[in-house]
Amino acid sequence: MVEKVVKTDEEWKNLLTREEYIVTRRRGTEPPFTGKYYDFKGKGIYRCVACGNDLFSSKAKFDSGSGWPSFVEPISEDAVAEREDESYGMVRVEVICAQCDSHLGHVFEDGPPPTGLRYCINSAALKFVPEEELVSEG
Q1: How much is the pTM?
Q2: How far, in Å, CA of 95 to CA of 105, rounded?
Q3: Residue 126 forms part of a structural domain
Q4: Which of 8, 37, 55, 86 is the most buried (most CB within 10 A)?
């Protein structure tokens, strides 16, 4: 069971940049091809910018051509949660951080093997940690 991170709206506003807050706490979306990780090729892991929860491995990242970082699967079964999103006149599956409920993006069933899934994630919701730093974390 994942331990939840709970903060007031004011605490989130003080912790996050304006863009991070709009994306993670207000379910915003950055414009395609503008986020710092959409074309990023580093090796390591992507964590939730709000709480530091491990979300995705660079090994699961692929170029979907969508303009957002895309992954075939989360780093672990309990890293993210999903919920129905009926905003903007569409029915989609929203992806949220399982630890702090931050909005990350959406998951679609048009990804490559082995999962056939495309986790389309906002760069503003992510913090990349290079492999070298992970080794020193132990």
Answers
A1: 0.93
A2: 5
A3: yes
A4: 55
